[in-house]
Amino acid sequence: MKFTVNQIAGLIHGTVDGNGADIISEFGKIEEGKSGAISFLANPKYEAFLYESKATAVIISNDLKLKKKPLATLIRVENPYLAFTILLQKYQEMIAYVETGIQEPSYIDPSATLGENIYIGTFTSVKQNAQIGSGTQIMNNVSIGKNVQIGENCVIYPGVIIYSDTKIGNHCTIHANAVIGSDGFGFAPQPDGTFTTIPQLGNVVIEDHVSIGANTTIDRATMGSTKIGKGSKIDNLVQIAHNVEIGQNTAIAAQVGISGSSKIGNHCLLGGQVGVAGHLIIADHTIVTAQSGVTKTVKTPGQTLGGTPASPNVDYLKRNALIRQLPDLFEKINQTMNLSN
Q1: Calpha distance 103→121 (Å, rounded)
Q2: Does residue 312 have a cis bond before it (omega within 30 degrees)?
Q3: Which GO terms describe its biological process (predicted)?
């Protein structure tokens, strides 16, 4: 990687403040920047590092008013975080090596349909009537069940298991050891205290441009489909139960658990370790902060919720502040009571 600051500024539509001929050869964090590296400043908490950083160039906001002159050449843009992301994507595209062909040993059922320029790694199994779109890369040790449909230009990483009848759109990424389409947790209690298994006859439908993290599980529906909407991003170690529906462009962080038949709206954000009870609806543009528990339907769009049970985040923070004061209040009450006695 060797580019001038001017070349990089052109890629991200930035304005150079400094020496545009400087050479960039690597990426780096602003607090760890060194000569030849390019970094970015998006969080005001890190502004102090801007003036100390030895990085050759730093991407900053058009609106940032400098307290003093940094050592680095600056590239000013509208949105530094987005600009740096675009830069990383461009570089990844340049260095990406796309493999093609079917590696041996692997098993491809004769009834499976394979698109052009696909790659299938060793020890992968593709069962009856499966369909794999052109340009898709399926790494080693992947299991693809009967009647599975995978669109074009997808990447399926090692160890992924995709159960029968799953439908995956175009440009999707599924990271290592994710399980798509396993049985939902359906058991009917009997009078004698035992459980009878409820057959899970539905499937999972994943729309275009979805990313699914490592070790995430998405259960098939009892009837109908568990659905993941277009453009949604799901982190590692997430559990999505049967018949859940997730809207478009929703982001779900690690260790979230969503119970059966709940519906998450479009453009929602669920922080790490959030729990969502079953059969709820969460309105569009809802943010649920980390470790919160959603126990009731959220009807009003655009709220930020926190705590358990989840409530408007301002109320949750107020309650927490009061709780922290309880020991002092308790001590004052005791002192008052002792004085009165």
Answers
A1: 5
A2: no
A3: lipid A biosynthetic process
Rounded Cα–Cα distance for residues 252 and 257 (Å): 10
Q: What CATH class does 3-95 carry?
A: alpha beta
Which residue of the set 171, 175, 242, 267 is catalytic?
A: 242
Question: Could you tell me if 156 and 143 are in contact, meaning their C-beta atoms sit under 8 angstroms apart?
Answer: no
Is residue 171 annotated as a catalytic residue, yes or no? no
- Average confidence score pLDDT of the chain: 94
Chain-centroid distance of CA 92 in Å reads 19
15's tokens = 């304005």
Domain map (residue ranges) of the chain:
3-95, 101-314
**Residue range 252-269, pLDDT digits in tens:** 999 999 999 999 999 999
CATH architecture under which domain 101-314 falls: 3 Solenoid (2.160)
Q: What is the pTM of this model?
A: 0.85
User: Measured on CA atoms in the order 100, 103, 106, 108, is the torsion positive or negative?
Assistant: positive
Q: Which two structure tokens, joined as six digits, stand for 53?
A: 């950083």
